[in-house]
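Memo to structure team: turn this sequence into structure tokens by end of day. - J.P.
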Amino acid sequence: MKKSIFIVAVLLTVMTGCRNQDQNLTADVENPVSVEDLKLKSIEEFINTTGTAFPKGEIEQKSKITASYYLEKNATRGRVWQLGDAVKEGALIARLDDKEYVNSVHMETNELNLELTESELRKQESLYEKGGVTLKDLKTASINYANAKTTVENSKLQLEKTRVVAPIDGVIVDLPYYTQGTQVETGSVIVKIMDYNVMYMDVQLPEKYISDIKPGQVVKLTNYTIPEDTVIGYITQLSPAINSDTRTFKGNISINNQNYLLRPGMFVNADIVTNHKDSVIVIPKNIILSRQRGKTVFIVDRGVAVERIIDTGLENMTHVEVIRGLTKNERVVTGGFETLSNKSKVKIIK
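Reply from structure team:
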């Protein structure tokens, strides 16, 4: 009997020792985690919307007469104008040649008549000062001169119809090609120019944001074709009226597009910045765990994961400001936190 008791005692001792050994092994397991050293950063709170970007200026130049068409050269590139060429206001794009039309304007005759009437006016002014002519004679000379001057100005306007020039600075976005010397009819499109150095965008904003969005706020705009770049705009106008069908109100965004990253007609993603803070603790939003006692994250302190309850402030889609619970230079766990518990041993792998 004593022998049996002894054997049972030995077995219990061995089993207890193995269990303790297993517990020690478990306690010594280090959970691999990634961490980030907390530095003071800036964070922005914004409201997201989308819309289509339109050019500030858009002009289509048409032929004002029926004439032979001749496309001019882009002096900067040494070739005829092409789609995508930048143009300055006043640049000659094409000539419309019609000798019969030019002759009908009588430009030379009208200019000669202007010279004669101007000379006659100066003569009448001199005689009037000496008492040689009446006031009526002087006024008649003045009227003749004014009429001649108007005729010359009108003639110049008529001749301008033979020149198709850029009325604004911009970029050629449409340029129907006609064979040089081809006759084009009145009303034919010669060139279309857009100025999209500055653009605008109309957006429909949810009613709940009517007190948050104000003129002058910065807007950050992106498009999938320029994933690495952000274009800056500003809220310029806001409608005070709510659309009863859509529960939205209208806003206008002015876009500074100096590098021509956005193109007319592009569908644009816009983040309207409604709040901003500098030099605060900011962490990724996806590392926050929701517990009964509140929001928590893990930090690493001397090889151990420590759970911290935090209070948050500003937030956006990816990051959040921490206003209580974390301090600068602490190491917050950003990867591998899902399986951690308080006081777990950890191994930093990144």
